[in-house]
Design a protein that fits this description.
It comes from Necator americanus. It is built from 8 helices and 13 strands. By secondary structure, it is of the alpha+beta class. It is elongated. Strand 1 and strand 2 form a beta hairpin. It folds into 4 domains: 67 residues, no CATH class; 30 residues; 129 residues, no CATH class; 74 residues. It has a 5-stranded antiparallel β-sheet, with helices on both faces. Strands 1-2-3-4 form a 4-stranded antiparallel β-sheet, with no helix packed on it. A two-stranded antiparallel ribbon has the order 5-6.
Amino acid sequence: MLTDDTCEQSEGLLRMRYYCEHCDNKSHQPEERRSRTKDKSTSITAICPAHFTASINQEKNTVVVVGCFAHLGHAKKTVQPQVITSGSPTQKSRQKPVQAKCKHCGKWFMSRVVMNRHVKEQHSDPNIIKGTTIECGDPHCDVVCDRMSTLCEHVAQEHGREDLIIEEFKFSDIAKFKEWKKELETGTVSKFVLSSSRTRASGVIQSYFLCHLSGYANRSRHSTPPVGRLRSTKKLGRYCTAFMNTKEFKDGSVLVQCCLGHFGHGFDVRRLPLPDKVKDEVTELLLKGVTTQEVYETVRKRYSQTERGYYLQRYEIRNIADKLRKQGLLSHKDREKQTNTLEHLSSSQMPANSSLSMV
């Protein structure tokens, strides 16, 4: 349909007339329209009566259409179908979902999402702990939280720790963040250890740090300690409120969201992990052939009672020596030499009826 060039407007109504493009009716189109129609290749066998008038009321926002919509005297206008090639920008790329099979019952599902929902509803394992369970650091409190920020909120409200707040810090690069973290740990007699880390599709590296006393030994709350282990774990079996969540962006900057307040334990320098600096000193002495006892005495003299190095334990020296042997840097003869030295030292310092106890 084509519109007439003339429009009528009166009393808030706008009237627009439309007619068939093949129409030669004088009552439907002006003179210049008829002249253009005669030049067309389409032959007119009869006068087409199709036309309509649209009355638009702008105030009431209504449209009334009156006319004849039947065509006569000409063939139906054909519209060339639009061909969309594989490279056309109008074609949307749709990936067909990959079907997935349930490993429990063998049923197939239209997508992995549907299959996972089926497994969760029909094949749930009661031995699997669902969701994240973060126990409050108070051994007399049974509250379990879903995330660290919720734990901080609970402890602040229910245990009177209003000083626990979640803060944000931003550093220009990862080196400045590590320097700040080291100074913080030294000043608060604490240690933040990496719990997990992942790289997003955007390239942002997300890392999660917890207080080194949070959680369970061997990363499991149900695992039993290894056979022959005499030392008790330093872990709380619950969660301290101190945490750090970091985002390292592509430009190198680091955003830190954290709670620096601790809860559920005291501050004992002896419970801190052995610093890397002390480990390096022990390693250097062991590679020089120094015995375990000599390493123990030498390293401890370098530190004061407020520093972790002063509380170096012999088992920590043995653990470092075992790692060096696995790397092929120490021989087993060195181990026999160190063991004989320790046995001789212990037997000379203890009564004959006393049993040897290693710490």
